[in-house]
Amino acid sequence: MTSPQDHVPSTAVRTAAPAGYARDAARLLVHAVTGVVLASMVLVAADGWGSGRWRLGCAAAGTAAAAGLVAGAVRVVLGVGGRGGPGRGAPAGSALLALMGWITAAAFGFGLSAWRHEHDLDLHATLMVRATVTDCRTNDDSGALCVFHWLADGTGHSARDSAADDWPDGHQVTVRIDPGHPDSPPVTGRGYWVLWVAVLIGALGTPLALVVRWALEPGR
Question: Residue 83 — φ and ψ, nearest 5°?
Answer without folding.
Answer: -65, -30
